[in-house]
Automatic annotation (TrEMBL):
Residues 92-304 form the ABC transmembrane type-1 domain. Gene3D superfamilies: MetI-like. This is Sugar ABC transporter permease. PANTHER family: BLR7065 PROTEIN (PTHR43005), INTEGRAL MEMBRANE SUGAR TRANSPORT PROTEIN (PTHR43005:SF2). Keywords: Cell membrane, Membrane, Plasmid, Transmembrane, Transmembrane helix, Transport. InterPro entries: MetI-like, MetI-like_sf.
């Protein structure tokens, strides 16, 4: 029997309901996720909203008890007042440079480690467990350990370099503006390279061995196989690894706090925010720095997600 347009319209009117009226199944689904939504609101959105509100106020706890609404003045001061702008730009520069260099080195070293661990050899499981030890340690412990290694008086690094004849006097690794950046970066690379290697290793194990076998039959070299099989196969995994590590590196705080306390050109955005919020108790201006840092990291995440989305669309 043919269905007329009038009958379809009548069925649609009968079966449709307003958006605020849910079916029993929909109501049950919303009730089941409601606890999670409430937790997210309390843990994430409520503190963010409070921080944004405080950033719109002049609220120096040392001299006043109540916040005074000033709108965007804290943000304007951050980028217009000479001293504040210089410090903020220096923090941006260190944070960006640190993120780019540390993540780049971690990717190179992590790729090498992942390629080695992907091979079949005796004791591979033990080697994988040992490689993950730096990543399993907390950042504060790693920073304290490297602080002892870098110590100018009794540090192991200076002793080794002097015994090899590479230096004739102790180097101030964490008290020299030209060297301290690299000291902090290398400590972070040592800790985080296993994380990148672990992610890349998971991607390597998803690439079919038949592709490499076919490439060998065709006479492809190792480098050609790596360029035309490994890298394209790892592309989504690489982007995920870089996304996680870049966001994490942009939030650097504890490594700087323990090793240098933000001195000698190593003040990151998070450390600058910490100084204003907790050391100076300037909750208004410190909250504006926190919002600026949040926007900075969010932009990085959006760029990576855009790249990931484009790659997925191309694969489809």
């Amino acid at each position: 029997m043919a269905v007329t347009g009038k009958q379809i319209k009548t069925d649609y009117i009968i079966n449709s309901r307003p958006w605020w009226k849910f079916s029993q199944r929909q109501s049950m689904a919303y009730l089941m996720v409601l606890p999670s939504i409430l937790v997210i609101v309390l843990v994430v959105f409520l503190p963010i909203s409070q921080t944004i509100w405080l950033s719109l106020n002049d609220y120096d706890k040392r001299i006043q008890q109540q916040p005074d609404f000033i709108g965007l003045q804290n943000y304007i001061d951050s980028f217009t007042k000479e001293s504040l702008r210089t410090r903020l730009l220096d923090a941006f520069g260190f944070t960006t440079g640190f993120a780019l260099i540390s993540v780049g080195l971690e990717f190179v070293f992590g790729m090498g480690v992942a390629l080695v661990l992907n091979q079949q050899f005796r004791g591979r499981a033990l080697v994988r467990a040992v490689v993950l030890i730096p990543w399993s340690l907390t950042t504060v412990v790693v920073a304290r350990m490297w602080g002892l290694i870098y110590n100018s008086e009794y540090g192991v690094l200076n002793s080794i370099l002097k015994s090899l004849g590479l230096i004739d006097k102790d180097i101030l690794w964490t008290a020299n503006k030209g060297i301290t950046f690299w000291a902090v970066t290398f400590a972070d690379v040592w800790k985080s390279t296993p994380f990148v290697a672990l992610i890349l290793l998971s991607g390597l194990q998803l690439i079919s061995g038949d592709l490499y076998e076919a490439a060998r039959v065709d006479g492809a070299t190792w480098l050609q196989s790596f360029w035309h099989i490994t890298l394209p196969g790892l592309r989504p995994t690489i982007l995920v690894a870089l996304l996680f590590r870049t966001i994490d590196a942009s939030r650097i705080f504890d490594m700087v706090f323990v090793l240098t306390e933000g001195g000698f050109g190593t003040e990151s955005l998070n450390y600058y925010t910490y100084q204003e919020l907790f050391r100076k108790q300037n909750f208004g201006f410190g909250s504006s720095l926190a919002v600026i840092t949040f926007c900075y990291i969010m932009i990085i995440a959006i760029i990576y997600i855009k790249v990931l989305g484009n790659r997925e669309d191309q694969q489809r």
